[in-house]
Amino acid sequence: MFVSFFPRPLVFAVSAVLWGAFAIGIWYTFGTQLGELLGFLVQAAGPKTVGAAVFWSPQFLWFYLYFSVAVGLFALAWMLLSPHPYLRWSILGSALILFSSYFQVLVSVAINDWYGPFYDLVQAALSKSEPVTLLQFYLQLATFAEIALIAVTVGVLTRFFVSHYIFRWRTAMNDYYVAHWPLLRTVEGASQRVQEDAMRFATSMEGLGVNLVDAIMTLIAFLPVLVRLSSSVTELPLIGAISYPLVVAALLWATFGTAFLALIGIRLPGLEFHNQRVEAAYRKELVFGEDNPARAKPLTLVELYAAVRRNYFRVYLNYMYFNVARILYLQTDNIFPYIVLAPTIVAGKITLGPMNQILNAFSQVRSSFQYLVNSWPQIVELISIYKRLRAFESRIDDRAELSIEIFTISRA
To answer: How confident is the model over 3-20, as pLDDT tens digits?
Structure first.
């Protein structure tokens, strides 16, 4: 699954995390000074830019250059130390997905910044506290339209590229398995694992992988925003005054939901894995029966289908009480931000604009923390597919010694 697409997967993953942490640390510690040294006006004077112009401001141009240099150095090191036929897709493709995902999060931050002046304008118009013209209102909507157009364009292009990226990953897996087919052909359901399981693994990774990257990028972008907005909120219900109350509330609520649902759904990965096994056994007997009249006898098929039936009923029962807990948590989650802000709203400490900024930023951070909650059914399916493919790959002898160059590379 991984050695076919990534060079030395474990070392690659560790090095990517360490290099990413180092690059992020340098950016937040010395990024401003380094940008000024190179001639980028990262300390721009005047009010904060709101609208699409922020994306080609000096600060953003400096970030684009910094990211490109960091990725280029990392890719060059791996190209020299461990050449791999899919290295351009696995490293440069992954970096492009990270960048586009982070850029989309920056679009969300830009929209969140737009909320402040827009809703303050709405409040001023409704309360008649100051004159508001129709032109001012439409100009605010036009500013949102600019940001939304960028969001749509980048979002569509990102999804298009991710689809190609995932298909290349599936192609790498397919080539790897085909190259070792003499060792794998005798494994139960070998054809299904090469074709269907590889396809399902790629499809699951496309959804879960992109959502995970989005969640991480959202945290990186919105946590500072939430920290800044926490200055307007001085206390939490039942807890009182604490430092960074919005960040603490989001973290505690998401941690509770993740642990709660993981505990309730702990049996689901095993049931899904067993479900695929009984389905494969039933399908295999039917396939044998197509060519051999001695196979697929009615009594045998009845027994095999009964095993399928029993396991499906267990899955349905476990998903029933899991969904009760999950839906109850998510419904409560809809009003949780208002519970957190209740003392601040009742005391009249914020206006409509900052309140909507806080609600949006809080929702973004909370949703990122709740990645496991929102993706748990898909994660269960991916775990079961992973188990099947791992068992399938274990048939390959001396897998650590195999050279990645032995399988045919598809260039389509």
So the answer is: 888 888 888 889 988 998
